[in-house]
Design goal:
Blueprint (H helix, E strand, L loop, with lengths): L3 H18 L7 H6 L3 E6 L2 E7 L13 H17 L7 E9 L8 E12 L2 E10 L5 E10 L2 H10 L7
Antiparallel strand pairs: 1-2, 2-4, 3-6, 4-5, 5-6
Helix pairs in contact: 1-3
Length: about 160
């Protein structure tokens, strides 16, 4: 029998899978940014994935697009929070440091970690590194918040979520 934490991780994983596999998502930024993403390790508050950078996500110079990286960081932040058995949240602050260019078909490792939850806010860090060398590619720091209408709905249900 699975624990509640394992169920939360599986729900988060299924949500991320749906972002890259539902036909109605095809062609969206999220769909394209997640194409080819593989799960390496998953646990509550932490997802580690691999991605060979698709050629479609490169710029005119053949380097991985910063916009595609930002979209991936946003999705990986959400899944880290969801895996803590918390509802999906919206981005309120996103800061990304870009360190190194990545070419098409180079493989990267993406690690997202939920660091802290306080009230409606959650802090997440997403670290992208070249697979093999572990050279830093980008680091995303993000604060996400539960939408006001969702917080009221959860309080009314007596969910036990302390985010009020």
């Amino acid at each position: 029998m699975r624990s509640g934490a394992e169920d939360a991780v599986e729900r988060a994983r299924m949500w991320l899978e749906s972002m890259k596999s539902l036909p109605e998502r095809e062609g969206t930024n999220e769909y394209l940014a997640l194409t080819g993403l593989r799960f390496d390790r998953t646990e509550p508050g932490r997802f580690v994935c691999s991605l060979p950078v698709p050629k479609i996500l490169t710029d005119d110079e053949g380097k991985w697009s910063r916009g595609a990286m930002a979209t991936l960081i946003d999705a990986m932040s959400a899944v880290a929070i969801m895996s803590c058995d918390l509802p999906i949240k919206i981005s309120v602050d996103l800061s990304i440091s870009y360190y190194l260019d990545v070419s098409a078909e180079e493989e990267v490792e993406i690690e997202s970690r939920a660091l802290k939850h306080k009230g409606k806010l959650s802090a997440v860090v997403v670290d992208i590194r070249k697979k093999g060398t572990l050279e830093a590619v980008a680091l995303g720091r993000q604060w996400m918040s539960m939408p006001r209408h969702l917080g009221a709905r959860l309080r009314n249900r007596g969910s036990g979520y302390a985010g009020g």
